[in-house]
Specification:
Distance between the termini of chain B: 7 Å
Distance between the termini of chain A: 13 Å
Oligomer: heterodimer
Number of strands of chain B: 0
Order of helices and strands of chain B: HH
Helix content of chain B: over 70%
Helix content of chain A: over 70%
Structural class of chain B: mainly alpha
Shape of chain A: elongated
Number of strands of chain A: 0
Radius of gyration of chain A: 18 Å
Chain lengths: 140, 62
Amino acid sequence: MNGYIEKLTGMAPLTDQVIGTDLLMASKTAVRNYSFAITETANQEIRQTLMDQLEDAIDAHWKISKYMIEKGYYHPKDTKKQLEVDLRTAKTAMSIANNLKIPEEISSSGIFKYKLLLDNHIIKVTNSVYYFSVSYILTL
Amino acid sequence: MIDHIGVHESLELHELLTFKSLCLTKSTVMQALVTDPALKELMQEDVTASIRHIEGLKRHLT
């Protein structure tokens, strides 16, 4: 268990980047989901709720984007740089998936069971969110 | 409230509710793994907003 945590601590900067990216993806998905939902509703009160929440989602996305840009994780204006980051991330994700075996005591502990539960829950949500959450759990 | 809305509207609300619940759970749990205080604060803001949003969605469903 401790060794596993040490591995996690050693990967702290990566973990921040992965979690930041996930937060960014989630905020993008939120904006899309709200927009779609608004076009599906005729009830004025529901519409207003969704429009208010959409505005919050757009603001949140802007804040998270700004953070990711400042940290150098996200380069929306520099495609070449962004590609470098993406390729490095893909490489790291692959090597973690290939090398990191989840120890028995972790997989049978509560937190992992909880994650599996979360995982089942995720299937009901959009595919992209599911995909990113799985890559998350692999990275952890 | 629920009697006055269409099936498709209620389904949309359900889907958003599931999505927001997942976001809330993730932002709450993953905060423990984050080292950067700025990121932690962004996540805490997300938690606060998500709770408010979920309450808002639930009001239309119950």
